[in-house]
Amino acid sequence: MTTDEQERDLRHRKVRDAMAETGLDLLLAFGPGWRRENVRYLSDARVTGSAAFVALPATGEASAYSTRRQDVAEIAGRGWVTDAHFLDPAEPGEFRTRLGDSRARRIGIAHYELLPSMLLDLVREALPAAEIVSATALLDQARLVKSEWELARMRRSAKVCAAGWQAFVDVLEPGLPEYRVVAAVEAEIKRLGAEDNFMLIASGKDEVRGMTPPSDRRLEDGDMVRTELTPQMDGYWLQICRSAVVGTASDAQKRSFDLFNEAVDAGMAVVKPGVTAHEVAVAQNDVFRRHGYGEYCTSQYTRVRGHGHGLHMDETPIIEGNHTVLPENSVFIIHPNTYTPIAGYHVLGDPVRVTADGCEVLVETERKLFQTNEVNA
């Protein structure tokens, strides 16, 4: 079994190898308030400040900085980066000095595109002669292949996905407001230790065209209730996409499920090491095209046909035109979620791991159109 220390060393070595290939003396993993995955990847610490950095030099010890004092103890206590400091934007002298002491000549900043100008100016002041480039793609690529240590955490997330979906189905009944469904899910997954949850929901019949946060709309008999349920466990997000019918499914709802299930199967059938996100998306979209629903694969009706999973909930997009290679042990969800006129917006999808000869489905929940008259019988 891989220890935490071995996992840390693996990650730092992987990133440093990529730094050497691109000529970086120093990598700054920047974590704004809503994109902290790179800071967590290098520190395994759950930070909550508005801005944080992990500074990884080509040689020597890493250091970390956060604008929230409580994060400093969290980072140091985790043990992956013990040299942790408070970054006071009003008095940033220590941050500037320590960066300057690195004497880095070429700096890569992951999430450079999200870095506020004030913080970028501090880096420039600390190392005025250094070249600064984006290292966002470098860390995206490093995080793409999951270690066994990471996969163990993601499998725990998968069990919480299944439990959350079961809680979703168990409460469905006519008259229940959408927010009560979400409350039941939140209670169950938090009981199981989820750090966070991203969840969308929609209910209705064939007029539903998308998914939103929960409203006070009350469920009616015959409604199809859809969700993307994405709990975070130990830092790792995993998603399940399912639809359920309040009562008994109509013929149209069953035909809709068959179409979407065929598309999920088609996406999974092409998965193998070296497949591209584009190819997985095309395989799904071709099912819709073959059945005469190709227009509903466009951006007018849908965003992606899936996306990567890991320390960020929405990584590599599975979309036509994205030729990112999906190597063995990458993890992503295949979900052809979109509107069609058959029965409205439909949600269906499973997270998978790329294996040596195909894919492993990470959730145990049956892929079917759930009907409450069956579940509650």
From TrEMBL:
Residues 153-351 form the Peptidase M24 domain. Keywords: Aminopeptidase, Hydrolase, Protease. It holds the Pfam family Peptidase_M24. One of its GO terms (molecular function) is aminopeptidase activity. Residues 11-145 form the Creatinase N-terminal domain. Coiled coil: none annotated. It comes from the Bacteria. This is Aminopeptidase P family protein.
